[in-house]
Every structure is written in structure tokens, then in C-alpha cells.
Design brief:
about 210 residues, alpha+beta, Hemagglutinin Ectodomain, Chain B, Nucleotide Exchange Factor Grpe, Chain A, domain 2, 3-stranded antiparallel beta sheet, 3-stranded mixed beta sheet, Protein GrpE
Length: about 210
């Protein structure tokens, strides 16, 4: 009877030990399964360090390419704006200065008008009506030229400037204040807008 109890007790212990081993195996299996699932989720979401580094490199490359294209676009746009402005300016200058040759050819005619006007004023035989008619034509002519941008260069009493004047002679200055300045104008000069189309021929005091 005692032996049967010992045998029963041994079987019970063996059964309990087997159950504990089975539980330990189940826990180990569950832990391993969870780790495996965690690894799978990590790989699926791409959150590994290697994946993050790859994404950062792609983002950096994209940003560099964008900056390069943007800079190129801005440069091309600036160059086109400069070209457009330059073209418009050249076109305006061409229109403004297009009649330079024709207007320059009229300057000797103006010189003749001025000589005729001086002669008429100094000659007593010429009637006042004729003198008035010549002066009227001269004034209309000068008004038309002024509308086209042609203006006479003021000379008498001005400091000598090689950009505007051509010295044909020098004489002792009649007074101290006229030294280095223009004391007489032999031929009047003209500008077309801001461009000199004929230098004034002058006499300079020294």
C-alpha cells in the first residue's frame, strides 16, 4: 500500500514537472513569436536606421536639384529682362535719333537764315515788312527744329568745354572774368536731345 502511494506521488511529480516544462516552452515560443512579429513590423514600416538614412539622402538630393533648377530659372529670367530693356532702349534711341542726318543737313540753312536776318536788319534799303517776313520764317524754322529736339548751344561767356566747343582762335581776355571763357562765337553749335550734332566754333579769352 505504501509502495502504491509512493508510485502515485512520483507520477504526480512527473506530471507536474512535465507541465512546467511545457509552460516554459510555451512562454519561450510566445516570446520568440512576439520578437519575430516586432521584427516584421519594423521591416514593413521601413523604420530601420538604414532605411532612414536612405530617405534622408533622397531628400537632400531632391533639395539640391530643386535649388539648382531654381537658380538657373532666376538667372535666365534676369537675362531676358535685361535683354528686353536693352532692346526697348535701343529702339527708343533709334526712333529719337533716326532723323539726325536730315536735321544736321539743315544746320547750314539755319546759318544762312541768320546771316540774311543780320543783313536785313543792318540794311536801310530793305523795308520793314521784308525784314519782318524773314524773321518770321526764321522763328518758325527754329520752333520746328526745337520740336524735333534740336537746340542751339549757348556759348558767349561760358567756360570752354571741348565736349561742346571748338576753339578757332584765342585772344587776350577783355576782362579778368573772361579768362578761359568764350568771348565770341563764329559758328553756332547744336545738340539733338543730349547729343552734340555740331560743335560751336568759338574764340576763347586768355
Amino acid at each position: 500500500m505504501v509502495e502504491m502511494n509512493k508510485q502515485t506521488h512520483a507520477e504526480k511529480m512527473h506530471s507536474e514537472n512535465g507541465s512546467e516544462v511545457t509552460k516554459e516552452q510555451d512562454v519561450t515560443a510566445n516570446t520568440s513569436g512576439k520578437d519575430s512579429m516586432t521584427d516584421n513590423v519594423t521591416d514593413a514600416n521601413g523604420t530601420t536606421p538604414a532605411g532612414e538614412a536612405s530617405k534622408e539622402n533622397e531628400s537632400t538630393d531632391f533639395e539640391a536639384k530643386y535649388n539648382e533648377l531654381n537658380d538657373s530659372h532666376l538667372r535666365l529670367r534676369a537675362e531676358f529682362d535685361n535683354y528686353r530693356k536693352r532692346t526697348l532702349r535701343e529702339k527708343a534711341d533709334l526712333i529719337k535719333m533716326g532723323g539726325e542726318t536730315a536735321l544736321t543737313g539743315l544746320l547750314p540753312v539755319i546759318d544762312d537764315f541768320e546771316r540774311a536776318l543780320d543783313t536785313v536788319k543792318k540794311t536801310e534799303d530793305v523795308s520793314a515788312a521784308v525784314a519782318e517776313g524773314v524773321e518770321l520764317i526764321y522763328n518758325k524754322f527754329m520752333t520746328y527744329l526745337a520740336q524735333q529736339g534740336v537746340k542751339p548751344i549757348e556759348a558767349i561767356g561760358q567756360p570752354f568745354d571741348t565736349e561742346l566747343f571748338e576753339a578757332v582762335a584765342t585772344i587776350p581776355a577783355p576782362e579778368e572774368a573772361l579768362k578761359g571763357k568764350i568771348v565770341d562765337c563764329v559758328q553756332r553749335g547744336y545738340t539733338l536731345y543730349d547729343k552734340v550734332i555740331r560743335h560751336a566754333k568759338v574764340v576763347v579769352g586768355e
